[in-house]
């Protein structure tokens, strides 16, 4: 596991690296809010320690941006405080959490990394927005909906114009597109995030880049959908789409984790095909 490190974004706001996903700490006065817990107790423990140090052992809460395991399997480390998320995150964890852990553990290396996981769902839920104050720092928790996951939210700090995107933003990486998301909605979500005009943007995965990274990912997704739609119109099947479009996208705008490209193209293919079928019917 990479070394746990913190990067100050603005005073009282830190990005946490060293896990599978990026996380965060907002600390002010005698309280702290952690953004996502990570995939395991091993990932979550140093994050909790760092948050407690910065809150002088005061009130400690956790916000889950969405229900995917790499962001929530460490929740049990924060189980003695408030765990906050959209209602959909709680429902998803209660209905699919155990099966998700079992699926991860089919990989022996991942099973060793996960260790013992106790599914620990949010204890405080919201529907659209929830504003909380970490000391003097205002934090708006805002639900978007179906995009990368079935239930995506983000944290917006209006005073410093700082944005924790969760997995709505992947920087320099081909984005993960597991089942249950929507590329079309994800594009809309990125537009919404751009409209906030953030000055500091912490992605769910990848390095911190200037805010125009939001537009870069949106453009990438639009290009992917356009190329897949054109291929479908030409009668190409899914396998042919992958063979044709994967190298084209990498030549146009190269991203690491290239092994994810077939899944991204398959997701776009399924979405475009469903839309075409609905139009015909």
In short:
The protein is an alpha/beta fold and 281 residues long. The chain is 40% helix and 22% strand. The protein folds into 2 domains: 5-210, 4-Layer Sandwich (Metallo-beta-lactamase, Chain A), CATH 3.60.15.10; 212-281.
What do these coordinates show?
It is a single chain. By secondary structure, the chain is an alpha/beta fold. It folds into 2 domains: 5-210, Ribonuclease Z/Hydroxyacylglutathione hydrolase-like (Metallo-beta-lactamase, Chain A), CATH 3.60.15; 212-281. The protein is built from 8 helices and 12 strands. The strands form 2 sheets. It has a 7-stranded mixed β-sheet. α5 (183-195) runs antiparallel to α6 (213-233), α6 (213-233) packs across α8 (261-280) and α7 (238-252) packs across α8 (261-280). The longest helix is centred in the last third of the chain and has 21 residues, at 213-233. It is globular, with a radius of gyration of 19 Å. It starts with a strand and ends with a helix. The model has no long low-confidence stretch (mean pLDDT 96).
Extended strand count:
12
Number of helices: 8
Spatial separation of the terminal alpha carbons = 50 Å
Class by alpha and beta content? alpha/beta
The shape, in one word, is globular
Strand content: 15-25%
Number of domains: 2
CATH topology of the largest domain: Metallo-beta-lactamase, Chain A
Major beta-sheet overview: 7 strands, mixed
The appropriate CATH architecture of the largest domain is 4-Layer Sandwich
- C-alpha Rg, in Å? 19 Å
Calculate the mean pLDDT score and round it. Answer: 96
CATH superfamily of the largest domain: Ribonuclease Z/Hydroxyacylglutathione hydrolase-like
Q: Tell me the helix content.
A: 25-40%
Low-confidence stretches: none
In the CATH scheme, the class of the largest domain would be Alpha Beta
Taken in chain order, the helices and strands follow as: EEEEHEHEHHEEEEEHEHHH
Strand order, main sheet: write it out: 1-2-3-4-5-6-7
